Amino acid sequence: MSKITDFEFKKSRILILGCGALAQEIIRLKQLNSWDHIDLKCLDASLHNRPHLIAPTIRSEIKKYKKTYENIFIAYADCGTSGDGSRAPCMLALQNF
To answer: What percent of the chain has pLDDT over 70?
Structure first.
């Protein structure tokens, strides 16, 4: 059996950085669709109620994992924005990245 290289791992895997409040739903989607190539890293669900901390936390996690994963997706919605999508944490995290 051949050993997978770091480059091959990076190309073949996807990381989802998600809100801990969405963990069960994302895990279930992975199971139902056999998405074995996707890794999930849920951030603390308490961030859902402290939206000002979401963007810097996401930025930090992206920096930590960007050498390991070529594709990183953010699974957040309107956490703490009261429906104001322009202030969505994922948008704030990706600005000036």
So the answer is: 68
